[in-house]
Amino acid sequence: MDVEQLKQPATERVFRAWFEDWEVENVKKNDAVAEQLFIEKHKNLVFLDPDTEKTFVVAPENLEWQRGKMVDGF
C-alpha cells in the first residue's frame, strides 16, 4: 500500500443529485458521448445504502444502460 498517497488530501467534488440540463438532453441517448458524460459525473462516487449499511462505489470505466421508468417524466 502506498502510504504517501494516503497522506494526500482527498479529492473533493460537488455532486448534484438532480438532473442537470445536459442530463435531461442525454438521459435517453444510448451512445458513447452520453455514456462518457454520465461516467464523468458519477465515477468513483461512494455512497452508503442505509437499509443494508453497505458501501458502494460507482465504477469509473463503464456505465450500464438499463431500461426502466425514470422519475420526473424522463
Please explain how this structure is put together.
The chain is α+β, with helices and mostly antiparallel strands and 74 residues long. The chain is 30% helix and 11% strand. It has three helices and two strands. Strands 1-2 form a two-stranded antiparallel sheet. A hairpin with a 4-residue loop joins strand 1 (46-49) and strand 2. The N and C termini lie far apart (43 Å).
Write the layout of secondary structure elements.
Layout: H1 3-7, H2 21-26, H3 32-42, E1 46-49, E2 54-57
Antiparallel strand pairs: 1-2
Labels describing this entry:
3 helices, alpha+beta, two-stranded antiparallel sheet, 74 residues, single chain, disordered C terminus
Q: Can you summarize this structure?
A:
This protein has helices at residues 3-7, 21-26, 32-42, and strands at residues 46-49, 54-57. It is an alpha+beta fold.
Number of helices: 3
From the N-terminal CA to the C-terminal CA, the straight-line distance is 43 Å
Average pLDDT level? 78
- Note poorly predicted spans: 70-74
Structural class: alpha+beta
Residue share in helices?
25-40%
Count of strand segments: 2
Quick one: biggest sheet?
A: 2 strands, antiparallel
Instruction: Report strand order across the widest sheet.
Output: 1-2
Oligomer category: single chain
Alpha-carbon Rg, integer: 15 Å
Which descriptor suits the 3D outline?
extended
H/E element string? Answer: HHHEE
**Beta-strand content estimate:** 5-15%
